[in-house]
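Project standup — Tuesday

K.O.: blocked on the structure for the chain from last sprint. Re-posting the sequence here as requested.
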Amino acid sequence: MSMKKIAFKTLGCRLNQYETDTLISQFNQGGYQIVDYSEEADVYVVNTCTVTNSSDQKSRNTINQASKQHDQALMVVTGCMVNNKKDSLGKNPRISYLVDNERKSSIYNIIDSHFKGELIDPELLEKNVFNFPLGEETSHTRSLIKIQDGCNNFCTFCIIPFVRGRAISRPVADILQNARELIQLGYKELVITGVNIGRYEYESTKFEDLVEQMLALPGDFRIRISSIEPEGFGEKLFSLLNHPKLAPQLHICLQAGSEKTLLKMRRMYTARGFKEMVDAIRQRRADVNLTTDIIVGFPGESDEDFQETLDFVQEARFSHVHTFKFSIRDGTRAARMDEQVPEKVKTSRSEQVRLLAEANKRQFRSSLIGKTQRLIIEKEGPQLSMGTGEHLIPVKLKGRFPKNSWQLVRITGIENSNDPALWGEAIDSAD
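H.V.: unblocked you, prediction finished:
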């Protein structure tokens, strides 16, 4: 069989990106040529997202893009939209295979068997959300480690428990072995990911215990915690933020600063409790970079409720806010709630959060001027290189520095933009 070309497109969360990366590695090792999604290919794989109506539309557009331009290619659609909209997707005659999240790790076998003349029905395959191969060669300089999948919370606005299933945790030994192998391959940063990672629990090991065990592994690397719900962790994790191998950056999902709105969302915490947690974190590590998610325009959200959210964002000094306009998802309780907020109001509130978050971002990043950062170089150029510091902030520095190497820099300035990178000056080799 001649070398086949395969292209991937990933939408949505870091968990989707992790799963795509491992598939890319598997196809690369299997003798396939990985090409850009805009190029001519024999196979197109779309890893979809369905968290909002906008996500559904983006997924459909991505599928249609390849379908129209490359009508003879094999089209494989996977991800959360398959779990949520399988019947409607099944009406698209251009889609060759629909693969749900539980069988996503089998995509290589499905496609490879297809080109060898064997047609496999994905629904007849065994379900396994952790059976992904080691991502030896990916499109990124850091590697993600999936520790958990699914969620049991059933927030009133969220469809994730329906498309990802109930919470399940990966065995500790498998995670630690995965981490050891990635460190040996030369990855400098490992990102812990999953759907609700704070609720990780395998036998007697909880999330904080797992992080502690990963930090104890030998090697020169750092651990970064991906998006996390404000539950399942506490003082032990706060103390670990001072560990030299743990990145002092947390993305903790708030969603709203109004007690009334949080209650209607059926979140598992209060605004007051969240604020106490923020204060406790900053007592342990004053320079921690805290970011969050906010939903604006939740049903019944009044001007007063929204102002409470704005006040919270300001008081907590979140340096970045991923803002979502509430989107009705069929099958969720919020879709049946009264007092739906007009789209125009949602747009206005989203803009207010954005402006406040940009001011917070500039203030936090400016506070790092004069301090040192240990970068992982991600872009190597003849006159300009760029890396990511421990606070997950891009830093530019003059000169050529090898990609995927450590470099210690002193922060010297900040760009004048809405999403400003920092400028740094190399101190010495950090390897």
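K.O.: great, moving the ticket to review. The CA atoms of residues 111 and 117 lie 10 Å apart. The domain at 372-429 is CATH 2.40.50 (OB fold (Dihydrolipoamide Acetyltransferase, E2P)).
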